[in-house]
Every structure is written in C-alpha cells, then in structure tokens.
Amino acid sequence: MPRSETVSATQPQLKAEFSLVPVAERLAWRNALSLHILKQMRGTDGRPLPRWKIEEQVRHMNMSLDSMILRGFDDPAALEHHFSGQGAHGNDYATSK
C-alpha cells in the first residue's frame, strides 16, 4: 500500500517543497508567522495589540493559517496580506483603557 494511503486524516497535509521540511520545523514557522501577523495588527485607535492579546490569539491564528494553507494559500506573503490588507478590520476588544 502506498504511503499516502496509510496517512490518517488527522496528520498534516504536505504540499510542494514545504513537505520536505520536518513537521516540528513547519509548526515553528507557522507559529512565527502567526506572531508576526498578530504583532502587525492594530486596534481601532491605531495602537498595537497588547502582549496578552497577542498571546491569547496565537492558537486561533494558527488554526486560521492551517485552514487557509489547506485551501491553497501557500505563500506566506499572501497569508500576511489576507490579515493585514485593506479588508482587515480593527476592533476595540483589545484596547487598554
């Protein structure tokens, strides 16, 4: 039986050259991209998100990135643009007062 048929649905899907990178390293890159994107985000007042909010949202951002990668977004610049482009919306939830 070919290896691809023995892989369970819960294992990460491998695509293009990215499949040559060990899983632990791919997860580290995904975490770094999540942190990078979250640190670029701003509240509606234009101020950066507080550290606690960034730490709280890393797991959620990782899930969003995983979903987008599975849908074919495999360019880190395109992923970053999706979250920081003109369509991105700020909110007051993370503002400190």
Automatic annotation (TrEMBL):
Q: What is this protein called?
A: Uncharacterized protein
Please tell me the species this chain comes from: Xanthomonas citri pv. citri
